[in-house]
Amino acid sequence: TLWKRFTSRPHQRLPPGLKKLPGPKGYPLIGSVPEVPEKNSFIKFAEWGKQYGPIYQVNLAGSNHVWISSDQIARDLLAKKGAIYSDRPHIPALIDDNRTSGQYLPLTSKNNAWSRQRKFANVIMRESEKAQFHRYPEIEAKRMLVELMDQPSQYNHALESFISRVTCRLAWGRSEASDELKQRARELLIGVSPTGALGNKLPFLMSLPDWLVPAKAWERRRAKTERTFFEIMQKDVENDMKEKRAPQSWMRTFLESRGSWGFQYELEGAYAVGMHGIAGALTIAAPMQTFCLAMCHYPQYLPMLQEELDRVCGDRLPRSEDRPNLPFLRAVIRECLRWRPPVPTGIPHYLIQDDTYNGYHIPAGSVMHPLEWAISRDPTVFPDPESFNPLRWLEPSYPTYQEPLTQYPTIINCTQFGYGRRLCQGQGVADEDLLIGIGSIAWLFDMSKHSDEAEDGSSTNPSHDSQYDEGEMNEKENSIHLNKAASISYEELNTGVDITEPSNDDQQSESSYPGAWPVDPLEEQIMDVEKRRRGIEWQYRQSKPKPPVKAKKGVNTIDPTLDYTTLLIAKPVPFRFNLELRDQARAQYVRQIFNEGLSKGEYTDSRGYWGEDNGKSKELGWGKV
Ligand code: HEM
After folding, report:
1. Which H/E stretch holds residue 55?
2. Does position 367 have pLDDT exceeding 80, yes or no?
3. Smallest Cα–Cα separation from 340: which of 42, 22, 10?
4. What is the pTM of this model?
5. Ligand 1 pocket check: which of 78, 188, 417 to mutate, most ligand atoms within 8 Å of Cβ?
6. Assigned architecture for domain 1-101+342-375
7. What are the boundaries of the region Disordered (predicted)?
8. What is the pLDDT of residues 524-558, one digit of tens each?
9. Strand runs (DSSP E) across 260-416, as ranges?
10. Nearest ligand 1 atom to alpha carbon 118
11. What is the CA(284)–ligand 1 centre distance, in A?
12. Coil, strand, or helix at residue 223?
């Protein structure tokens, strides 16, 4: 099969009268693989787009990948010709074939399982939206704000937990599974990311036995743990329903008319619900974290946002009904998605039959990538595209301005959610979570860059020190226990990045994260200055000397606003910044309403599913990530 794979390159057979798509030449057999950096690969693909045009092709280890940097071309092909462009490519690292297993709607081929699950998804999304998502985002926003007040340095955990808890409630009616859901999302993300699981880089490994390939054994255990988790969650909701105490959820909707969805087996419902849980938990925290980054680097916009929130909401938290009156908030959210797309490379489609576009031949079997990163920085649509500028959605002089401002700007149907028949199903959930989540943070907090550190390492702004120093930070009486094990791990941040594990003596506090990738010595010096400025501790060291690796040409490794994680869904690498209360009275009010909820039993702690140590050494449990 290897021989066939490398010798049968379909894109080389050119029908008469048609041109080959332009693109980099690459090397024999491996194609352009060595030219694609793992860190911010989307920037490289966008650069090729400038060089070769808005549609070009790249041979990556024998597969033909077509990259589209223009919204119009993406629509012309992926939407208008949806009949042939709506399949999905094979993801080699998954144990069950993603195209036919029916486990993951976003990765399923355009087959019957996809049709019936998409219908089901339409119903559950419509129902939740009609019920204003059962106010779950508003309920969880209070807990998030209390966590942010108590442990600002753990802001990324608070934001990820907010999203995961809301999604858990939507999926199964309760929030206890939120840490488990985060872990399921994290492991699946590794499994499906080109820069994640080894099986995606070296597919032939997946045909060897488990005992020879730990990555395959890891995936088998992941898949089994995921299935068991989904089954447990389904059973829990069934029990809740029997006892007539099941809160509204997607699972309840499934179970209430379980025979009518056309699912082939009971487990399909457990997956259909669980997959939406994972999709939500994976994605929405990314723009929330981008929001924090943007507010630190473009400080002029936070006062404008706060002015709007204060005017519209006064001394209460933002609510769903405020949406029409909060155009500035919607503009900030829309701009976060444009400036730093959560899925920057897009989710690929797969072409099932030969096609032509403007005289170019696009061979069947091509993997089609709508390059969201490039699409959202077309300078004719987004002048000065590299700048974070929410005003481009609010001032008539910009091409993106749209009225009425009670509706626009909106993220609904914006380019970041894909194309045609595979369009994202969760836009409404994302819209609600971001409105409530980002609105609540800006309503309660000021954000700014962390003060520069003095040469001796001491902070020039002592008032911020205690806020961020893990050692000195006392958890307040009401603080929610943050499950540290559920935090973003070293490995997740660096999957696919060539650095060594931190040694113990280099390890500083848990709130400092490594996030480096190989650079040449000169560049490293420049970065050192930048690192100090940002206050990110670089806590690892290379255990054995390695030859310096050249930073990929043209890839910006210095701009701190480009320090993003490497997996399919890109999040800013956690960074230090000042998160300060705007108003003591508001802080008290939030604590009071949160405590009221707590005493009514609205907030339960996270639950473990696999016993001690999250089952690390057992048959089922958390895999090493
Ligand atoms: C900011 C948040 C989100 C972003 C940026 C995002 C982005 C995307 C993208 C780019 C696709 C691929 C579309 C294509 O292939 O053309 C997609 C598909 C999908 N998304 Fe989202 N998504 C988000 C949130 C969510 C949420 C909250 C859910 C569910 C609760 C969800 C469920 C799905 C599903 C089920 C699909 C697959 C549709 C299909 O293949 O037929 N997404 N999303």
Report:
1. strand 55-60
2. yes
3. 42
4. 0.85
5. 417
6. 2-Layer Sandwich (3.30)
7. 451-476, 497-520
8. 333 333 333 333 322 222 223 333 334 444 444 46
9. 349-350, 355-357, 360-362, 367-370
10. 41
11. 10
12. helix
Residue 370's pLDDT band (boundaries 50, 70, 90)?
Answer: very high
Any ligand 1 atom below 6 A from CB of 282? no
- Ligand 1 nearest atom to the CA of residue 125, by list position: 30
Measured in Å, residue 132 CA sits from the centre of ligand 1 at 19
Average pLDDT over residues 496-501: 32
Confidence band, pLDDT 50/70/90 cuts, at residue 452: low
**Residue 509 phi/psi, 5° resolution?**
-105, 165
Site to probe by mutation for ligand 1, drawn from 42, 163, 275, 283 as the one with most ligand atoms within 8 Å of Cβ, is 283
Q: Where are the domains of the chain?
A: 1-101+342-375
Tokens matching residue 528: 């050192």
Q: What are the pLDDT digits (tens) for 382-426?
A: 999 999 999 999 999 999 999 999 999 999 999 999 999 999 999
SS3 call for 541: coil
Nearest CA to ligand 1 atom 16: 418
Residue whose pair of structure tokens reads 């380019």 in the numeric block: 415
Retrieve residue 384's tokens.
């000065």
Ligand 1 center to 198 CA (angstroms)? 24
Q: What is the pLDDT of residues 256-271, one digit of tens each?
A: 998 899 998 889 999 9
**Beta strands 19-20 and 360-362, pairing class:** parallel
Q: Point out the ligand 1 atom lying closest to the alpha carbon of residue 277.
A: 30
Interatomic CA distance for residues 181 and 276, integer angstroms = 11
10 Å CB burial of residue 602 (0-12, 13-18, 19+) is middle
Please work out whether the CB of residue 425 comes within 6 Å of at least one atom of ligand 1: yes
Cα angle 302, 308, 310; round to 5: 95
Q: Determine the pLDDT at residue 9.
A: 53
Provide the CA 304 distance to its chain's centre, in angstroms.
Answer: 27
**Strands 360-362 and 355-357: what pairing?**
antiparallel
Q: How far is the CA of 254 from the centre of ligand 1 (A)?
A: 20
Closest residue CA from atom 8 of ligand 1: 417
DSSP states of 84-150 as a string? Answer: HH-B----TTSSS-TTTS-S-GGGS-SSHHHHHHHHHHHHHHHHHHHTGGGGHHHHHHHHHHHHHHH
Ligand 1 neighbourhood includes 411 CB (under 6 angstroms): no
- ipTM of this complex > 0.95? yes
Total count of residues recorded for the chain: 625
Question: Is there a binding annotation on residue 292?
Answer: no
What number does the ligand 1 atom closest to the CA of 411 have?
Answer: 1
CB-count burial class (<10 Å; 0-12, 13-18, 19+) for 474: exposed
**333 C-beta closer than 6 A to ligand 1:** no
pLDDT number for residue 545: 34
Q: Evaluate: CB of 164 within 6 angstroms of ligand 1.
A: no
Atom 7 (ligand 1): residue with closest C-alpha? Answer: 417
